[in-house]
Amino acid sequence: MVNTKRYTSGIIQLAVIIILAVVVLSLLGVSLSSLINNQTLTENFIFLWGWVKWVWINYASALFWKLWDIISQFWK
Asked: I want to staple 25 with a disulfide (CB 3.0 to 4.6 A). Which of 30, 31, 36, 68 is the partner?
């Protein structure tokens, strides 16, 4: 049987972290809507996401799936 308490506490922790991050940003005077509407920030995230995808496709995915195969052998 799967331990659902472990997964539930992880979701609660994630929600608390997100709420605290929004509160901290608000206290620092950062507006989330102005960040989303900022063209330079949007372009930077698009560039960063493209780079992350390139690294994943060319390097990280092969390593990840190899490690996954090794780890999954323990559950068989």
From this structure: 30
Looking at this protein, which amino acid is placed at residue 50?
G
Q: What DSSP character marks residue 56?
A: I
Residues 73 and 76: their CA atoms lie apart, in Å, by: 5
CA torsion angle for 7, 13, 14, 19 (degrees, to 10)? 150
Whether pTM exceeds 0.70 = no
Put residue 30 in one of left, alpha, beta given phi > 0 → left and psi -120 to 50 → alpha.
beta
Dist CA 69 CA 35 (whole Å) = 40
Low-confidence ranges of the chain (pLDDT < 70): 1-8, 76
Rounded to whole angstroms, the Cα distance separating 50 from 65 reads: 21
Question: What gap in Å lies between CA 57 and CA 53, rounded to an integer?
Answer: 6
